Amino acid sequence: MANVLYHNDIQDEVLKQKRIAVIGYGSQGHAHAQNLKESGYDVVVGVRAGKSWSKAEQDGMTVKSVAEAVAHADVVMVLLPDEHQPSVYQHEIKPNLEPGNALAFAHGFNVHFNQVVPPQDVDVFLVAPKGPGHLVRRTFTEGAGVPALYGVFKDYTGEAASIAKAYAKGIGSGRAGVLETSFQEETETDLFGEQAVLCGGLSSLVKAGFETLTEAGYQPEVAYFECLHELKLIVDLMYEGGLENMRYSISDTAQWGDFVSGKRIVDASTKERMKEVLADIQSGTFAKGWILENQANRPEFTAINAQESKHPIEQVGRELRQLMPFVQESEKAKSEKEVVPGGTH
Ligand SMILES: NC(=O)C1=CN([C@@H]2O[C@H](COP(=O)(O)OP(=O)(O)OC[C@H]3O[C@@H](n4cnc5c(N)ncnc54)[C@H](OP(=O)(O)O)[C@@H]3O)[C@@H](O)[C@H]2O)C=CC1
Ligand SMILES: CC[C@](O)(C(C)=O)C(=O)O
Ligand SMILES: [Mg+2]
Ligand SMILES: [Mg+2]
């Protein structure tokens, strides 16, 4: 088995002496900055003027411009959207890096696909939490954590791996497991996971199930509960004890249906297409397409995003969730209320 490190396996003195700049205060940024601060680290947040600046200040963080935060820090964690990193790196981060600093990422995309080419005289590492930023924060406050991968691209000081491991511990990942990787492995597996299983595969499965039921005349509310709401409850069982634990809790009828019908839905041809998706990631075809889409100002992304939010499963879901006060309000809904005071969406 791989060498999975936990809280007490990781020394943190090497990072305690350093000043950390968290660049960006979005999903990952707010979580890293707050968790590190609460773990006793010297943290500043680097953002542009606007919403993130105000939010970080409201959360009690020290906030500087990106350039000032980088100039001030020894360790610079870049938590901007992947598509904005190359330009911000070129204009605001690179000119302010000093020899011996550490440049860090939560995903290897830009370094692996040569969109950010770091200087020779800095450490370069990644700490990639295997979970959404809002859960990196929420689990930390609950005394738990999200597992993370760490990997070193350049070890200029000889301390890069130690700093990376301490950083992972500082955001709470030592409570769940910290595992060594490479930039290539993290980038390719993360892109594959989000496209084929966690986000792309799952959202397509959920929509197809919902559409099949509603097109057959069943009530949309029943289809929503069956294909989306209950998914969390089923996945929680898998999270706690694997497929076996899920199958322990469901009826034997459901388990038999799982065995005989699951493979009719996800079959050998699905796996073939998964291999094609992986091949596009490995060859750089996916990365090239995403970079070009951004250079063209995201026409397809914007159109699909607008279309998706109008899907009947989203419409019925919004209505049903308002009637379920125990369903935790999403971070997205909360942030929209902050922008539109008194808003209900
Ligand atoms: N989302 C996740 O859970 C995960 C993300 N990652 C990786 O973490 C990194 C960050 O992703 P994520 O947290 O989703 O990013 P977000 O989209 O949440 O980042 C938003 C932040 O970036 C700032 N920002 C955006 N554009 C610019 C710009 N041009 N100049 C300055 N600031 C800018 C925003 O500021 P403003 O408010 O001013 O717009 C905001 O503070 C990525 O590399 C991603 O792949 C890794 C694991 C999981
Ligand atoms: C699953 C999507 C993710 O890779 C993540 C939350 O881990 C991302 O890029 O947001
Ligand atoms: Mg991921
Ligand atoms: Mg990802």
UniProtKB/TrEMBL annotation:
A GO BP entry is: isoleucine biosynthetic process
Q: Give any Gene Ontology cellular component.
A: cytosol
Q: What class of enzyme is it?
A: oxidoreductase
The residues that the entry says bind substrate are 251
Q: Which gene encodes it?
A: ilvC
Domain of life here?
Bacteria
Return the EC number: 1.1.1.86
As for family, the record states: Belongs to the ketol-acid reductoisomerase family.
Q: Does the keyword RNA-binding apply?
A: no
Catalyses: (2R,3R)-2,3-dihydroxy-3-methylpentanoate + NADP(+) = (S)-2-ethyl-2-hydroxy-3-oxobutanoate + NADPH + H(+); (2R)-2,3-dihydroxy-3-methylbutanoate + NADP(+) = (2S)-2-acetolactate + NADPH + H(+)
Q: Which cofactor does it need?
A: Mg(2+)
Keyword Repeat on entry: no
Q: Name one GO molecular function term.
A: ketol-acid reductoisomerase activity
Task: Provide the cofactor note recorded for this chain's UniProt entry.
Answer: Binds 2 magnesium ions per subunit.
The protein's organism comes out as: Pontibacillus litoralis JSM 072002
What is the protein name stated in its UniProt record?
Ketol-acid reductoisomerase (NADP(+))
- Phylogenetic classification of the source organism: Bacteria, Bacillati, Bacillota, Bacilli, Bacillales
The UniProt function text for this chain reads: Involved in the biosynthesis of branched-chain amino acids (BCAA). Catalyzes an alkyl-migration followed by a ketol-acid reduction of (S)-2-acetolactate (S2AL) to yield (R)-2,3-dihydroxy-isovalerate. In the isomerase reaction, S2AL is rearranged via a Mg-dependent methyl migration to produce 3-hydroxy-3-methyl-2-ketobutyrate (HMKB). In the reductase reaction, this 2-ketoacid undergoes a metal-dependent reduction by NADPH to yield (R)-2,3-dihydroxy-isovalerate.
Q: Which sites bind NADP(+)? A: 25-28, 48, 52, 133
Query: Keywords for this entry?
Result: Amino-acid biosynthesis, Branched-chain amino acid biosynthesis, Isomerase, Magnesium, Metal-binding, NADP, Oxidoreductase
Active site feature:
107
